[in-house]
Amino acid sequence: MDVFSGTCPLTQQQLVEEYFLEHRTKVLDIAAFLDRIDRSVARDAEDDFRIVAFRRALKELCSEGSMRVERIQMVLSDTTTEPLQQRDRQGAFGAFDQDG
């Protein structure tokens, strides 16, 4: 394998040394968010499109192969190409409601 076939100039070990603690914190933050969802007093968002998309994105995160960022971005993105007759909302939700 060609040493320069990747696109990152750092070695895996350099990446681990530099970024592991930062990303460990992010993983723990996600785990805490999901734990709070599971412990909430009302189970009223199980089918919320954002939670559904979030869980699908996490499955992609744990999948094999490269291009995880692209696959996760597609899980969270509106892929419709037809223009709307009128704007449907002012703010962004961070995920696309395929049913709404």
Polypeptide structure, described:
This protein is mainly α and 100 residues long. Among the domains are: 33 residues; 35 residues, no CATH class. It has three helices and no strands. Helix 2 packs antiparallel against helix 3. The longest helix is centred in the first third of the chain and has 28 residues. The protein is flat and about 50 Å long. The mean pLDDT is 87.
Topology:
Blueprint (H helix, E strand, L loop, with lengths): L11 H28 L9 H13 L6 H9 L24
In short:
The protein is built from three helices and no strands. With 100 residues, it is mainly α. Among the domains are: 11-43; 45-79, no CATH class.
What brief labels describe this structure?
mainly alpha, single chain, 100 residues, 3 helices
Largest sheet: none
Question: Strand portion, in percent?
Answer: under 5%
- Overall, the morphology is flat
Number of strands: 0
- Separate helix tally: 3
Question: What portion of residues is helical?
Answer: 40-55%
Structural class: mainly alpha
Q: What is the N-to-C order of secondary-structure elements (H for helix, E for strand)?
A: HHH
Give the C-alpha Rg: 18 Å
What is the residue-mean pLDDT, rounded to a whole number? 87
User: Uncertain spans, ≥5 residues at pLDDT below 50?
Assistant: none
How many angstroms does the end-to-end distance come to?
Answer: 47 Å
